[in-house]
Design goal:
By secondary structure, this protein is α/β, with parallel strands linked by helices.
Length: 286
Amino acid sequence: ISVARNSVPGLAKAVAGLSKGNLTRVTNIPRTRFNDNVSPHRVFEAINVDLDDVKKIKNAVSGATVNDAAIAIVGGALRKYLSAHNELPEESLAAMAPVNVRTDDDKAGGNIVSTMTVQIRSDIAKPMERLSAVHESTAQAKELTNAIGAKSMTDYSQFIPSMLTAQAARLSSRWGLVNRMKPQFNCVITNVPGPPIPLYSTGAKMVANYGTGPVADGLGLFHVISSYCGQFVISATSCRVMMPDPGFYRQCLQESFDELLAASQKPVKIKKKAKATKRKSQKKAA
């Protein structure tokens, strides 16, 4: 009863915001090869780049975050990958982004995780335009999550017995329901920052840190964003049937990053024109 009582104001606020256009909900999520039944076989790939370069990318768009830059990289990579397979949808793909909603009042350790839906803007070819659109998408997703109350979402999940959810997942896989239902997400992108200092085990230094995650029917691509000692890593886990060429997807991730970094270092043309106009006016005055 208390959970329902606490969540009603948030739900009412969200409904009012959506009806007035103040809040935006992600819809029209396209179906891709990653929204199918997964096989028992897995593939894994990752890119490792300088964290300072990722910060240069996010600084190119006012207000953007490192997480926004990572999502834009993934969006560009999936655009390249699906386009090469002649499967790129016109609509933007969407990612499930786990969010830690544990507050200082929660005495128990560990994370309390909810989720939000973020458009990765795979429909935009130009790197900086994609990053700007991703930043707008994550801001809208956070507004909707805050309106409902992410903690309320996790509270409701506690009432569903784990045995019931496991049985439902098995029936869904057996009956192929993922192929009949509209996709809610196309992939997962979760950010798990690592330590900025080196770690050791019995004197041996850890030289790299990679993350992996579970894939499931209807959600066959899982990205883990992590960092370690100035390095930034984007890892991807998928099903071998869905992604028979993981090396090519790694290439797509690297090329997407390279394009964003190059675009972030280009001078702004508007500023150049403004300076030229100023110099011209000074000559006339002289």
